[in-house]
Design brief:
Elements: E1 13-17, E2 20-24, H1 26-37, H2 45-73, E3 78-83, E4 86-91, H3 119-146, E5 150-156, E6 159-165, H4 174-194, H5 202-214, H6 219-241, H7 245-265
Parallel strand pairs: 2-3
Antiparallel strand pairs: 1-2, 3-4, 5-6
Helix pairs in contact: 1-2, 2-3, 2-4, 3-4, 3-5, 5-6, 6-7
Length: about 270
């Protein structure tokens, strides 16, 4: 979701998954706390926050792994940074890292400059994050059904959600039901949001590649105008329909960022259609 990799801090958490170095920036935990605190009840806040953090961490890590695995599919290495409200899957090894690459025995790799990604490759890389989250969602639904439960769609206000009705002994644990519900919610709503044509979200990156293929000269401006319009619409929906101040501020800031980029490019005075 973010473009620039944040600087390292003494409080970073570092580990590896499938050979990919992973770094968790402290702002990931802070933003997770701010997002999850208001959705918990005072009586169960400690347990619910713990489950929220696990569900958030797993879901965002899976999302970035989708990007990283697709980067590897095209013969390149990658590392992952979880930061603020999302994360980054970044091509190459992290600078100053002690992690070894699955290809570390090939010494020329670090000096080799990979060819530029094709638009088709970039589209697949961008789509892989939301795609793997939808796959995780399908696996969760399948596992619930196989254990004798079911998943029912329901609307909470204007937001579509999936609610698990677990079978057998699993249904006797309210905390476990709450945790599964969090996983279903995050892996349904967040990839849908990520596929909106708003830069720098994955959907915005996909729109950018499609429009640049159609028009190498004006495609970037069109993608930015699309980001401005879609971000503005979503900001209005967040304020007027969802009555969610956070969603309004998020999409408004993304729309403004795209418009400022247009101004810097000299394309803010007209729509290139």
């Amino acid at each position: 979701m973010f473009i620039a990799e944040p600087p390292r801090t003494p409080w970073d958490l570092n580990f590896q998954v499938f050979g990919f170095p992973v770094r968790v920036h402290p702002l990931f935990w802070l933003m997770g706390l701010l997002l999850g605190f208001g959705a918990t009840t005072p009586q169960e806040r400690g347990a619910q926050l713990a489950m929220w953090f696990v569900a958030l961490f797993v879901s965002i890590l899976v999302h970035e792994l989708g990007h990283a695995l697709m980067i590897r599919r095209f013969g390149r290495d990658a590392h992952i940074v979880l930061y603020a409200m999302g994360g980054l899957a970044i091509e190459g090894r992290p600078q100053g890292s002690s992690f070894d690459s699955p290809w570390s025995s090939f010494e020329p790799y670090t000096a080799w400059k990979p060819r530029q990604r094709t638009p088709q490759e970039q589209i697949l890389i961008s789509a892989a994050g939301p795609g793997i989250q939808f796959l995780l969602l399908a696996l969760l639904v399948g596992a619930i059904c196989l254990t004798g439960g079911r998943v029912t769609p329901q609307w909470v206000g204007h937001v579509p959600l999936l609610w698990p009705q677990l079978g057998g002994e699993l249904a006797k644990s309210p905390n476990f039901v709450y945790f599964i519900a969090l996983l279903l919610e995050i892996n349904l709503l967040w990839p849908i949001i990520n596929l909106l044509p708003v830069l720098p979200l994955d959907g915005g990156q996909i729109a950018l590649q499609v429009l640049v293929q159609q028009d190498p000269w004006g495609g970037t401006q069109r993608a930015l105008w699309l980001s401005v319009i879609a971000g503005g619409v979503m900001a209005a929906v967040g304020l007027l329909v969802l009555q969610d101040l956070f969603a309004m501020l998020l999409f408004a800031s993304l729309a403004v960022s795209s418009y400022m980029t247009l101004q810097q490019m000299g394309g803010g005075g007209h729509r290139p259609w």
